[in-house]
Design goal:
By secondary structure, the chain is an all-alpha fold. The chain has 2 helices and no strands. The protein is about 95% helix and about 0% strand.
Length: about 140
């Protein structure tokens, strides 16, 4: 039984602590609201004329900035469009020049091989003719 009594006392103590913390939270909230109102009273509020002037200034700066960004966007977009087309043309001409030079190199190599082959064939033909002539003389 003493254990049950201790449990009941612990539960009562916890309830008391919860109630005290709730009271403390309410006090803190009230204190916060009082401080908040006091701070708002210290604020120097602009007059309607100042408010209008500041609003017009902010809207003007925003519009000018938007116009600058719009112009820069158009400029970069056009440079990008035309710049890419020129790059494509340059790359296309570079590729054709490279392919032509590769083709010419291959053609030159093939021509050289043909000439060498023709020379070898002529030498073989001359050797064959001279052997035939030698065999006929004998």
């Amino acid at each position: 039984m003493p254990k049950d009594a201790n449990k009941k006392q612990d539960v009562k103590k916890q309830d008391v602590k919860k109630q005290e913390s709730k009271k403390q939270d309410k006090k803190n909230k009230r204190h916060f609201m009082k401080d908040f109102k006091a701070e708002l009273k210290r604020v120097i509020w602009p007059t309607p004329k100042q408010l209008l002037n500041n609003t017009v200034a902010v809207i003007t700066v925003v519009l000018i900035t938007a116009a600058i960004v719009f112009v820069l966007d158009l400029a970069f977009e056009s440079m990008n469009t035309y710049g890419i087309e020129k790059l494509k043309e340059m790359v296309g001409t570079t590729n054709t020049i490279e392919s032509n030079s590769v083709d010419n190199t291959d053609t030159n190599t093939a021509d050289t091989n043909t000439v060498v082959t023709n020379e070898v064939s002529e030498n073989e033909t001359e050797n064959a003719v001279s052997e035939d002539a030698n065999s006929v003389e004998e």
